[in-house]
Predict the structure.
Amino acid sequence: MIDRRILLKAGGMALVSIGVGPAFLCRAALAAEPGRRRKVLVAIFQRGAMDGLAAVPLVGDPALAKLRPRLALAATRAAGVESLIDLDGRFGLHPGFAALAPLYREGQLAVVHAVGSPDSTRSHFDAQDYMETGTPGEKGTSSGWLNRVAERLGPEASPFRAVSLTSSLPRSLYGPAPALAVSNLAELRVGGAAGGAARPAGRGFETLYEETSQQLLQETGREAFEALALLSEKKVASYRPAAGVDYPGGALATSLRQIAMLIKADVGLEVAFAESGGWDTHVQQGGAQGIFARRAAELGRALAAFWQDLGPAAKDVVVMTMTEFGRTVAENGSGGTDHGHGSCLFLLGARVAGGKVHGKLESLDRGALFEGRDLPVTTDFRAVFTEVARRHLGVANSAELFPGFSGANVSLFRG
């Protein structure tokens, strides 16, 4: 038997596994070496640019209160208006993220503040591309940083090593390492790596098989899809979260619920990707209530439910959020915030140095702001990604993961 790489093409593309012949696919997909607990990284992209100063503001900063008369929240509750949740006396957590506060107090959740890209673009498209490829300011990078991570996780790969719960493969997972985009495991919609429309499984299996002209794909493509179909039939339909776990509604909660199922089914998942949209808050962003608060509650409750659902498996999982850039420090005339520079991210894990706000953010005085208007970037996102890849997944060569990056290391894990 020879090693085989399977590329399945239809209206879009899905990159499925690499292994030793067709039998490997079903064995790895459905068993994936029982007894061996793999480390799993779950990356959540908050698309639209989350306002880091709304999520985790400096408590009582006079400049913030002045620049955000309608948006800034007080440190203490008054007149029935929700206040910030105190984190460490200097920083507060937006009440929309209240479901995450216990994880912070337990030392499992950390915040990295004033983090972002050294590139100053305020284009969503460019900034997302730079963050997902891991090459700020460089267009045309062929692979995503998560794909480069997956390449270096060793030869014992499952078809489910790298899975994105999206309708198309995200830029982060482009590249030579096999990855799978599935918008909903229950329907087994397989998405396109080039943004093609999702195709339902069912007759899609037959269509893909009939359209295949290469002998290799005829021999192995059907088995790859059958492995997915079998997983869907046996695992997704019957899956029930752990007792007491109540996932909220919304796309992110659905994605995290299915990622939890894949982790607990032990099918060989090592890199998972999900998305949270709606963070582009130009108009009526709101304070304790409003658009931002709703997005925060959706993410916070979904992530808290996911973590509870994992149970003992959580010890092998790290969750990291990311967003392309932050928002302006000053609110605009429409009660929102415009495209900015630095933001913050959340890091969740049993070995994470949690209960702490990492990063350097001292003042919001105009002289300390980027271009006089934005939160500065004092921690390059690549430093955080490098630390997570090294300490959690054991992928240590930052020069290969992030070409041209030689920034300072950050310490975000215990031990």
About this structure: The CA atoms of residues 127 and 324 lie 5 Å apart. The radius of gyration is 21 Å. The first helix runs from residue 21 to 30.
